[in-house]
Amino acid sequence: MPRGYFITFEGLDGSGKTTQLRRLAAWLTAAEYEVVTLRQPGSTPLGDRLRSVLLDSRAESALGQITPLAEMALMFADRAQAIAQVIEPALADGSIVLCDRFTDSSEAYQGGGRELGSERILAMHAAVCNNLQPDLTLLLLPPLEASLARARRRNERNQFRAQGPHQQQAPDENRFEAEADDFHRRIHEAYLAIAERDPHRVAVIPGTDTIDAIELRIRALVAERLANA
User: Fold this and answer.
1) What pLDDT score was predicted for residue 156?
2) Which value, in Å, is the radius of gyration of the alpha carbons in the chain?
3) What are phi and psi of 7, to 5 degrees?
4) Alpha-carbon distance 110 to 176, whole Å?
């Protein structure tokens, strides 16, 4: 059986990548491809536990401040588990794997945002992930200010969710969005550097078009890549 195809979605929170991943998954499924979707951190029992630590802004009040190196290590623990439990088995079965974030996120957020540097992130990826590389990375990069505003509005809306007759506070996943704008500017710059370094793998999708127009652009790009795979 031919090996599957590995596509990752990258970008700042609020870039629209999750919406586009879902739309692409629906289109590929309708075209009768076998599709597996996942997000990082998350999508395994271990990953979901780590997600609640890494993204919930209230976690540090219970655990203490998470250091940049600890944050990096936890992200890679999640990634290694996802590769072994979800990604590699799906690729071996010939499926198309769509992943919401992968190591480019660590290079951008921990390498750039936390200023740990790319070299350390790439060495960790080689050691922990056996250097598994996506076949295609779709990097959604709308203007920085627009992404941040959208992400912060979303997290404010989702902070409280009604569950039955009671209202329960839900994980706000706002830990990174709460950082200063300079942190996000470094992430944005790191993503641009990744795209410049690896232009064949990374396709930059400016987020200035409508959601529907971006979806059509992604469809065309993926169809071309799959035809030539």
Assistant:
1) 61
2) 17
3) -120, 130
4) 11
SS3 track for 50-106: HHHHHCCCCHHHHHCCCCHHHHHHHHHHHHHHHHHHHHHHHHHCCCEEEEECCHHHH
Cα 211 from chain centroid?
A: 18
Which position has the higher pLDDT, 149 or 201?
201
d(CA 64, CA 94): 43
What is the spatial distance between Cα 6 and Cα 83, in angstroms, rounded to a whole number? 11
Listed residue (120, 94, 105) closest to 34, CA to CA: 94
Model confidence pLDDT, tens digit, residues 43-74: 999 999 999 999 987 877 677 889 999 999 99
- CB–CB of 205/141 below 8 Å? yes
Q: Enumerate domains of the chain plus CATH numbers.
A: 5-223 (3.40.50.300)
Cα distances (Å, whole numbers) of residue 135 to 7, 177, 216: 6, 29, 20
What length is written for the chain?
229
Backbone angles phi, psi at 9, to 5 degrees: -115, 130
CB-based contact 148:14 (threshold 8 Å): yes
Threshold 0.85, pTM exceeds? yes
CA-to-CA separations, 186 to 38, 112, 137, 219, in angstroms, rounded: 26, 5, 20, 29
d(CA 89, CA 81): 12
E-strand ranges in 113-220 read: 136-140, 160-163, 166-169, 202-205
